[in-house]
């Protein structure tokens, strides 16, 4: 059965499964999946439809990315129109209008003067690109000794060698140790169950953890450090909300020593926290910002790196005229289909006020109440929330970390809600078009699921 048939059939009910053997699935327990497949065959608005004909409420916006909900007609149309008009154009030494239009729209919602946009195809590529921009910037200014990066424990910055090096996800680092970048150090993560458990929104405790950057600067010397990279809110390692004042401190220390501050907003960007970007929510402006996912509602792979004007100017004006100033780019940078989807998605976000809806309509307060209402559900160890994100951490079973969360995820799917899990934390981040009743449905389903797992 080809994809069209799967999709068509999915609209009407159950479909037969294709042969599962050939595909090596990413970040998946392949054997478990193939023994009991969970196949999504179509999607509309807040819902997926499964291969067995069930409607599944999307509690995670696909993978933190379908912020405007599924199947938006304007995006579908824009992609189809673009494919007909021009399928592909080379991005090196050539341009096409839609990529300039897309960059212009993004520059308009950027924090501060991060108004220069570099297109990639994913969050991982955005991170690699940001790290390279940092190196190129310092070199262009005659500070080529600044080659070191500071990441953070429990950070996730995708799967490229740059990203796993600055990231602090242990499972990701364990196997690939041999390929790690040299010259990387890490800040401590910002989570403490003792001081922060069941905080609503930003924890009061923990701003002082940013002071560790001072220690690393004393250890390595500022003249060697290119950039600090953090997720303003760590998503993939279990929703770790920054303590009040923490990001301000990081900003101040970076500015003091001429170190670039990179915010990885692949998850926190495009309205997830009630402002276009976390930078605006926390009122802390980085020097470079990496994004992807919801930039075009995830309709075609796309990433976008936002860069301060001064950094662009230093790199571009620092090169001889006629020379390629930044030796970097992808065959699919600014791909016409991805750009068409970006323009359409950004227009929807602007027209429907989606990038601020979560705060404007008090959805975040409703969400917080619903999530923290699960405090007395079985197995719950901690609940963390911010904007339209929540992490519900469960007590781990002895000798079986992650198993209880996996079973909860399976149970929720069976009960008609798609959630995510990382370690023993259930992570939630629904599309920003969610209705209050659907928030209740997510909470009720989780309570039922938690009551049924051992
Ligand atoms: C903060 C952050 N950075 C980077 C990435 C990697 O993005 P991608 O999977 O598109 O490469 C992710 C993915 O979830 C992420 O959460």
TrEMBL record:
UniProt cross-references to InterPro entries, sorted A to Z: Aminotrans_3 (IPR005814), Aminotrans_3_PPA_site (IPR049704), PyrdxlP-dep_Trfase (IPR015424), PyrdxlP-dep_Trfase_major (IPR015421), PyrdxlP-dep_Trfase_small (IPR015422)
Protein name per UniProt: Omega-amino acid--pyruvate aminotransferase
SUPFAM superfamilies, per database record: PLP-dependent transferases
EC numbers: 2.6.1.18
Cofactor(s) required for function per UniProt: pyridoxal 5'-phosphate
Entry keyword set: Aminotransferase, Pyridoxal phosphate, Pyruvate, Transferase
Family, per entry: Belongs to the class-III pyridoxal-phosphate-dependent aminotransferase family.
GO molecular function ontology, one term from the record: pyridoxal phosphate binding
Top-level enzyme category: transferase
Protein's UniProt keywords contain ATP-binding: no
